[in-house]
Amino acid sequence: MKKIEAVVKPFKLDEVKNALTKIGIQGMTVTEVKGFGRQRGHTEVYRGAEYKIDFLPKVKIELITTDEMLTQAIETIERVAKTGKIGDGKIFISPVEEVIRIRTGERGRDAI
Amino acid sequence: MRFELGITRNGLIDTRNLMAQAVSSHSSPREFLRQHSDMVDGLVRKAFQKAQSQVSAPSVCLIAVGGYGRAELAPYSDVDLLLLYASSKKEELPPLIEKILYPLWDLGLEVSCSSRSINECLKMAQSDLQIKTGLIDGRYLDGEYEFFRKLYSLLTKKILHRRIQKFAEGLAKDLYLRSQKYEDPAYVLEPNIKEGEGGLRDFQIGRWIIRAKYKTDRWDSILFPDHSRMLDKSLQFLWAVRNQLHLLSGRRQDNLTFELQEKIAPILGFSTGTKGIEEMMRQYHLSTQRISNFVYDILERALHEPSWVKKALFFFQRKKIDKDFGIGYGELHLLDPVTFKRDPSQLMTLFKHCQSYGTNMDFRTEEAVMEALPFIDDRFRHSEKVNQTFLSILRKGERVETLLRKMHELGFLSQYIPEFSEIAGKIHYDLYHVHPVDIHSILAVEELGKLSSGLYLKDYPMLTSLVREIEKPEILFLTTLLHDIGKGRDGDHSAVGEEMIRHIGERMGLSVEDREFIGFLVSHHLFMIQTAFRRDLHDEQVILRFANEVKNLKKLKMLYLLTFADIKAVGPEAWTSWKDTLLMELFLKASHFFEKGAVTGPFLKGDAMVQRLHESLSPEIISEYAEHLPDRYLSCYSPAEISHHIEMARSIEKEPLLVEWEIQKEIQAKVTICTKDRYGLFSKIAGSMFLNRLNILEAQIHTWGNSVALDIFWVEDATQGLKSRLVQFKNDLMEILSGKVSLKDLLSKNKGSQGIKQKVIPRVSGEVKINNHDSDFFTIIEVTGEDRLGILYELTQALTDHGCDIHFARVSTLGNRIVDTFYVQDTWGEKIEGKQNVDHLKQILLNRLTSGEDPPFSGMKTTSSDENIRETPSSS
């Protein structure tokens, strides 16, 4: 099992969510986050004064998949979240030791 | 809790798999869907009854909706339920629903349940298309039957058969939106069996409209028996594939990915290997094309049924064209239904009329065409009248692609040109060829149509004026339609196709000269591609050889247009501005040859060029460099460029590496590199470019007599970061050349992580051809193989290690297939000759192509060096 954390542009959230549901991902956690990467924020001018905007709003999607589903899930996020411009976001993948569904006590892939 | 329904999650999976084997989910998919749905019915009822006994709730009715309602439940499809209640006691429902759903969820079933009153249902069905269509397929499961009866009698009376046109419009919109989404080549190669073009959802749309409009559950009752039988077969095939998709993936998987194509083909009884996959996908495309035609046909009928007002209004505008056809409501129709039976040749006249009057035929006429297909026999195919009419349609050129598509859709084209049916739905199991061959052929005609209508005037002005100069456009259109006709049979498709098209031409009554001409075009339809993309166009000999083979300007023009249409119709990414440039260069050089009788470039050669250099350089400098400049180098560049290069060469005394670039069209750059020649320079440059994700398109490598290396690269980077990548490339190359870092280390850091399984894509087998005929001075090596990171670096490294000097390289990537051409000499400036030597080199390159795989040489094909170089890049 793997955890995918994808940080994407907020307006892409719905599309990514729909595409992932389509391929059979059954659940995910979404958080509104702020951050910056290579985009390094940008400068806004307000009433003549420059304001540095350091952190840009993004959404972070977290989901757990089986190893078999991983490739397809990553590919889906990549395809859908891509605009080709800077700031499209990143995808992080890490191994997951165990998943437990609290209501039933199921473990492992049954609990995903 | 998990055993509540008498079965466990794994138990359910086992039962389902056993059932799939017992009823053979692929030979009788419909039966399997029904049995599976029965089984789930049992579980749902059990859950429902148990819940009712545990919770006190008002009386309700449980209804299956959607695909489950039709009892067409694929192994992991959604189980959609509707709980119908009497309007008052809504708040008492949630505990009941919970009790029903939890045990079903715990079994791994994808159950969703909505609860509504009868009135809510009717209201929502009126406003929401999805709810309406879901309800159409409703099926009583359990509970208060009276509720079910009431809902459906109201639904039928008040909603279902009313406002059909609006219903059809809604569905047409859904169809359009999905087709937009699934148009992407990725979805054509790995189609979505449910939502994709001609998929199960499309079929459903047709079925709903028939249900609403013709008030019948039997969709097949309104079609010809032959037609409905074929359609049913297509549907069953899609079901069979979908069942396997679900069973193999253990979840609701509707994308027919490459990985699953490979697994499913043998299960469905297709032969093993690539051939079986291609056969299966052919059947897939034929099935979806049929379903697609069906749904568009049905939609057309529902959308364009004229209202009685319109009928009355247009009554006086109906007019007769001739004794057999008339025009009414803007559509062409048949006056007498038996016309085609009496005189089949009128079928072709019908299409001619469609072109002349700029209209479509109405659906009844389309039906009559389909019904008349059996009358198309050899006499029809040899009939002068028919053939002349067909050619005149092509000659006129207007809406040719639309008419051909319609002919194909109605099955007419394959009857008239039976050879065309052999390529229908035929696919290549690779990433480059997006469309099946028949669709590709019609798209190619469409590209020509776009050219001649002036749509490409801005982008391709020269091609536009060429297509307008063509004397016999019908020959060009016919050849384009049939250029891949040989792909339905075994062997080299250009050669096979030539035979076939000559035969077809004879049947159509073309003159000997025309037959000769189309035969030539078909047999040479890859010739221009192979020359332009794989040979050094600065080489006079290449142009001469090409021109001698093509023979005259007329053929050249046709060939250029055909080549354009062919590549453009492969897919949106196949045609690039780079290919455009190369083809145009070859065309211009060859046409110069035909007009002037010699290859005349803008550039001078040898001494004449050296003379011209005096204009910009001092005599001392010229005398220092002139003797070192090779002829090949001098013939490639203008005096201004050469002077600039010499200035660069002079300054490498101070600065060991000079890199200059010109960015063109934002994504391409011409990079000039000047440095002292050293061992393995090319592969070091290639490696550094690879590190910085610069794709090499072409390389000209010149080594001057005074060991100055002057290399010109054309590179590409599509991510808009070209400039910063070039800067980084220069830094990397500097460090590597100065020995500060090793390229190997940098490359190994770049390896992707091993933990993630790579996506399965079609494999490409490796092939190496070594050719000593085409150039007097160089051995030409063509390498075809699977693309992977850093492949060019590895190949050039292998060539260097083998003592080959690379002088010219051209690199193309077609999907995940690379075709790289290298012009090489050995260390003494000679060709690589001798069988042993050649075979050894071939083995080394093949080894590199597959390195990292075991066993090293399996599945490889080597072609002997003296084999004819013409080949089919797509047949391996």
Beginning-to-end CA distance, first to last residue of chain A: 9 Å
Structural class of chain B: alpha+beta
Give the CATH architecture of chain A. Answer: 2-Layer Sandwich
Residue runs with pLDDT of under 50 for 5 or more positions of chain A: none
Instruction: Give the strand line-up of the largest sheet of chain A.
Output: 2-5-1-6
* Main sheet summary of chain B: 9 strands, mixed
Number of strands of chain A: 6
Query: What's the quaternary structure here?
Result: heterodimer
Estimated share of beta-strand residues of chain A: 35-45%
| Continuous helix count of chain A | 2
The overall average pLDDT of chain B, rounded, is: 86
Unreliable spans of chain B are 852-876
Strand order of the largest sheet of chain B: 9-10-12-11-15-16-14-13-17
Largest sheet of chain A: 4 strands, antiparallel
Q: At the third CATH level, what is the topology name of chain A?
A: Alpha-Beta Plaits
CATH architecture of the largest domain in chain B: Orthogonal Bundle
How many domains make up the 3D coordinates of chain A? 1
Distance between the termini of chain B: 56 Å
Find the CATH topology of the largest domain in chain B: Hypothetical protein af1432
Q: Could you say which structural class the secondary elements and strand pairing of chain A correspond to?
A: alpha+beta
